[in-house]
Write a structure and sequence with these properties.
The protein is mainly alpha-helical and 539 residues long. The chain has 18 helices and eleven strands. The strands form five sheets. It has a three-stranded antiparallel β-sheet with strand order 4-11-10, with no helix packed on it. Helix 1 packs across helix 3, helix 7 (184-201) runs antiparallel to helix 8 and helix 13 (410-423) runs antiparallel to helix 14 (427-440). It is globular, with a radius of gyration of 23 Å.
Length: 539
Amino acid sequence: MKKITKYLSAALLTLSLASCNDWLNDVDNKSSVDDVTVFNTAETIDLYVNGFYTWLNSYGQFGERQFSGSWTEAMTEIFKYSGSNQTARGGQPNIYSQLAIPMSPGGNLYGVWDNAYSCIRRINQFLELENTYATSYTAQQRAQWQAQARFFRAFMYFQLARRHGGVILYTELPTGPNKARSTADETWDLIAEDLDFCIANLPETWTGANVGRTTKYAAAALKSRAMLYAERWQDASDAADLVIKSGKYALVANYAQAWKGDNSESILQFSYNRTLGPNTQFDANYAPSTDKSTASCGPAPTQELVESYEKKDGTKMDWTPWHGTTQTPPPYDQLEPRFAATVIYPGSMWKGLKMDCSIQGPNGYFFAYGTQALSEGNTCSGYFLRKLLDESNTDVVTQRSIQPWVELRYAEVLLNKAEAAFRLGNIADAQNAMNQVRARVGLPAKTSTGDQFWADYRNERKLELAFEGHLFWDMNRWRLCHIEYNNYRRHGMKVDNGSYEYVAIDNQNQMFDPKCYVLPIPQEELNNNNLIVQYPEWL
């Protein structure tokens, strides 16, 4: 009889997916359970399914999968790691941003091929076992188990598709190592098919101990995201409409609360538990040195990000006077609310301290990139990250981080709708969806059309979703990386004895080669699969 030792062990982790649930109870402390035992009760089947939810953590911004522990934003204009030591959250992502072709079939820091297919195999094994051993349960129970599994199969194929396009498609356990890759259209077809099954079979909401599981609307939200990548604009628009017209979600009034979970904006989140686990070291890694953090990364939002924010009245700030050296403090207080909620800047307050961010410190000091291998919580740009950090955590060194990771939130769905509507030529719908996001922070509505709307939308999406893992992938799917992320340098604001100096924080140009829009198939797959053919870009 087949064993599912490591799969059930993963499910037996003590995990909280929402603050009010208590899903993962011990099952006689078994580390190896046969198939019949697992499918004996609905409770143990739930435990099996629960293991899939951990991937929301591992593929989120607090996890390690998207870029081997780093953020893909480090390959964009809005963010840089201050530390130059050759580690994750330091020199590794910085080097990747400076090499036109930083990866190969033999190694790729933001490839996920092996892990994704391991997860897909787990899902397909569950579906096969469920089909064999769960026949005594009601049709509704079975459909909901299957739908949760297929949600995460779509989630994992989405991770592969946005990196590779067409990949090898498995909807059942493989019978051997050899299988050809499918086309990009076929890959997006499977993702859409799985999510449509979820939309048809998952409940609108869960109750009691099941609160926090994926729902009909989480599946629709994920579909609205995935279909933008597939350039299936009507499908993306329809999926977004399903969420919007449900009336179950709304933008919270305060943008600073938007990504914190357990609110009307959260569609699907992964929550943590400081005592029982899981939890993270996010604050220890990303907090400024005033928190006694000695992390090597030193997350540094850039001047390019700062200058992307409009003034509170919706007009653009003229930053020309600060593109040199001046004694006049930058007009940070004139920028719209998302700026102060996202960035710690000179003169801002953080945990009761007025941040200095200068060469002298004392509250968070500036240093020139390359002069310190370890940033020890300081910055090469003159700015620190605020968004996603827990300001209530007063001891990041010993207190693990437990702020939820919100994988799908309502603001993204509105922006997905705006983009899909624009692509379809429905400019009024596009403006309406985007302007709802702007209205939340008191910005006036945009009435632009054509190329100007597209520029406005791109900026709106960049700022609203800053540091939530979208920008680099958006620029990839728009095929703009080789244009805008090629032969440029990022900047910061050096503060020194009351003077403000606009400085480059890259010691060489950033690069991007168009062949990197499609990541290579790993060499191990090529060695073991006689039917696989490498992507043309990598032949």
